[in-house]
Fold this protein.
Amino acid sequence: MSFETLGLSTELLRAVSEKGYGQPTPVQKQAIPIILEGRDILAGAQTGTGKTAGFTLPLLQRLHTSLQTPASGKAGPRSIRALVLTPTRELAAQVAESVVNYGKYLPLKSAVVFGGVKINPQIQRLRQGVDILVATPGRLLDHVSQGTVNLSNLEILVLDEADRMLDMGFIRDIRKILALLPASGKSGRQNLLFSATFSEEIKQLANGLLHSPAYIEVARRNTAAEIVTQVVHPVDRQRKRELLSYLIGSQDWKQVLVFTRTKHGANRLTQQLEQDGLSAVAIHGNKSQGARTKALHDFKQGKVRILVATDIAARGLDIDQLPHVVNYELPNVAEDYVHRIGRTGRAGNEGEAISLVCVDENKLLRSIEQMINRSITKVVIDGYEPDPSIKPEPISRGRSQQRSGNNKRPSFGKGAQAKNGNTRTSAYPQNQKSRRRTSRSRSAA
């Protein structure tokens, strides 16, 4: 099957061809025709399957088709007709880039708004009129409170990475946004819900949002891409950094994405790798948007060899042909493992996911293996054999974690979430101004 058989317009096919796309991916084959029909969708697909194009291409076509047959001849600024909500700034920026690239031959205008940057340039862009808005929930509500966004004419709503938005504590913000939207249903708004994983919360959200949706699931839920080679290297906690530097140097890895659990851990590891003579840069929620954008750009361009990230980068980072992902520390939530390693093995390319696992993380590893329904190959590196006499220590989830293992009570910054097994908590201030500030912090996480 080719893109020509999916019912896309000549303008979109030209843009797709210029991007070098050949055959549509499974999620694109299924989703595009259904969205073009105007139906609601509940779609599940693991990361790297091309779902952004799967909803962006038909969204553009539907808006363009209705633009060609306006209901009235009244002139005026464009109103927002399609809204795409994403959990993070990076994903918002990438979706917005896709909208521009795919819609380059269409007379549609788009904008992206997210926190961490000045709001005034966004206001100016919105005042010029846009058809498509890509946004993070917190910053969108900031614009709503300032009267710079009007969603009363919305025709299409997309929730991208909906499970991640719920994990990050956005459910109240999402409900507020839904309350601002026009009716959905047979003759109303079209709703598209995309999620890499499903949970009872996602099902509840879908039941309240979607009208007779088509259900698409192109891979078994909570599974890692088969094209990604997964391996675990057991190692003592104090020798992880040494082993990581050895692997990168001895195997001459040119580009590697490394995940830590905490922002402090990301900063510390980056400094240590630099001391080892390896160029590295950190990306996490405490970094300014400018610093995050520059770090990602330098990594993609090969100016730095290693990008050290918290789970901010587990979703939304689309790095062409990224060969290696390393879990320097396993995530506290098993599902995040799938999203982390999904940064490699994208668009049909092979990839390698390496996890450095100490005795403290054996329970986390078992949870991951149970979730993906497979045992991950364990390979002990000569010279880095774990010391069997070392006892496991509790894993601290806050900035107060000490390398000596003397754990204090975790300390969480403003807007951060604490993770405890499968339970996540977040603070919701009572006054509206504080709540908006907390939302902005969540959108930056």
Q: What stands out?
A: The mean pLDDT is 82. The CA atoms of residues 429 and 435 lie 5 Å apart.
